[in-house]
Amino acid sequence: MADWKLPETFAGSTGTVRWNRLGEADRPPLVLLHGTPFSSYVWRAVAGSLARDHQVFVWDMPGYGMSEKSAGQDVSLAAQGRVFTELLGHWGLAEPVVVAHDFGGAVALRAHLLHGADYRALALVDPVALAPWGSPFFRLVRDHADVFEKLPPALHGALVREYVGTASSPGLHPAVLDRLVRPWLGEPGQSAFYRQIAQADQRHTDEIQDRYPAIGVPTLVCWGEDDAWIPVDKGRELAAAVPGARWEPVAGAGHLVQEDAPAQLTAALIAFLRGLR
Predict the structure, then answer these.
(1) What's the CATH number where 257 sits?
(2) Using an 8 Å Cβ cutoff, are 224 and 254 in contact?
(3) For residue range 94-114, what is the model confidence (pLDDT) as tens digits?
(4) Where does the AB hydrolase-1 domain start and stop, copy by copy (predicted)?
């Protein structure tokens, strides 16, 4: 999985989406959603394991990773929820299992609760779901994105590298950190980085937060116990809000559970998936 590629394209309503499919076509479908400021690359280890028993779909949201980045692009949670619903239709997936991290959790929840996307089951990993959210740094950049966007490239690169690094509890391997930061460097990467933060609006989770008790599909909530971005108490609160949700804390992991504890996360997901049969 070192050479992570997304060879397929989809013309979404807010830009071209890059995606890929792993595993045999006759296996049950499972879709992975990444968060911010990441890309599908964070799922590479987990995706490879899940593809043994599932047809796994991975994609980069518009404005992220390998997907299109453009001036004036709508990369809000509202737009991403619509694009995900469009993409499920493009793939012809009626009831996939959906596994979503961080910002992707809100995207999956909006698609399900507002746009009628049906899931076989839903696994949420340290999702953006409950107010308030956004670290002090995140809020600072959001409120002054036009200023930060003008940083010299070297300073911008150092800022992004430091910020992404704090998503891990034990620390990221330098090569992994390089790969996660790379899409945000140069043009249009630098502008895209501040664009997605500037458009992060809590009202897009406020709109659905009261609907979580209406979620009727099997749900798993996983959370890194050392998450410095979204406290683990938010995970317990979310699991309590969704009827019958299974709660799975992951010891020794920060916000990027996929990088900090891929084996533990994969084991939790596989156990959850086996329980659906």
Answers:
(1) 3.40.50.1820
(2) yes
(3) 999 999 999 999 999 999 999
(4) 28-262
